[in-house]
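Standup notes
- HV: blocked on the assembly model, inputs below
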Amino acid sequence: DIQMTQSPSSLSASVGDRVTITCRASQTVHNYLSWFQQKPGRAPELLIYNIYTLQSGVPSRFSGSGTGTDFILTISSLQPEDFATYYCQQSYSTPYTFGQGTNLETK
Amino acid sequence: QVDLQESGPGLVKPSETLSLSCTVSGGSITSSYWSWIRQAPGKGLEWIGYIYYTRSATYNPSLRGRVTLSIDTSKNQVSLILTSVTAADTAVYYCTRLNDFWTGDHWGQGTLVTVSS
């Protein structure tokens, strides 16, 4: 199985901050890397797929980058509704696997 | 707009079989791949498997042959069966539609299944 490791596991930030979350795969996942946002009691929502492609309706302050095994989710200017847990996922090789999550909290 | 709605019993006894359905509306079940993902309370996301209506399903080996996915095109439903459940199978179960990059672009709201006697 491909292991996905996110860092940090938790992050405290303020509205307006620029935030980055990293995701490392144990082997290449090529461009099959996605990011999800999950709020308490809600289903995850797809933010980004294909490393950098924004899902329809997702604000442009979210962006993705990286290649092969190392990927980054960036939120350019944090908004109040962005405090949530974020997961990366590889869909290159089954079983598809997720990172352990990054809990983004208000400072 | 595709909408997915999971349904099934919220409580299952240990060693018994968990059965869930996902009803798809706003789109044809024959046009996409569909997957199930679960999340134990306070934990991360675990991929269970995916299915297409004309092909056999692909499963997570961690479920050791206990899982079966199926599609009923007449009802526009995707179903999940998990046998010999234990407390470790207690989770919110989500149904998702897969996009061209094999990731879930539409999710159901999830259904909590508790395994307990």
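- HV (later): unblocked. Chain B has a mean pLDDT of 96. The radius of gyration of chain B is 13 Å.
- Next: hand off to the docking folks.
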